[in-house]
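Appendix B. Chain record.
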Amino acid sequence: MPIVVEDVMKLLCTLSAERKMTAAVKHSAKGAVLTGAVAFMGGLVGGPPGLAIGGAVGGLLGAWMTSGQFKPVPQILMELPPAEQQKLFNEAAAIIRQLEWTDAVQLTTLVMGSEALQRQLLAMLVSYVTKELQAEVRYDD
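Structure tokens predicted for this chain:
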């Protein structure tokens, strides 16, 4: 049975939605630019003490700005470009390749009936989101 990317993406969306997974992608580059800009302005206005104060204030603003808004993981997965979906699909396919199924509904039913498969897929998904997307994952209960 050839594995279809869309079916696997639907499965991962269902699994992550059931576990109420959310993730926040950190935008560290924006925070670094803001920190540097505020430190620079502080240095221009106040000399060395202004540079120190500007760096501290900029660092706090940068950290606050990049703390990230959490979005549902299913939404993040569906917004992935095709190349990233393929990469995620390849990792999931290695876990579910022994299953026989005909569509996304049957695949989801098979996986939801197996706690072991769910754990493997969730671990793979969390690893992908944290490493590849550099996001923080949490479970909203």
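Further analysis of this model is presented in Appendix C.
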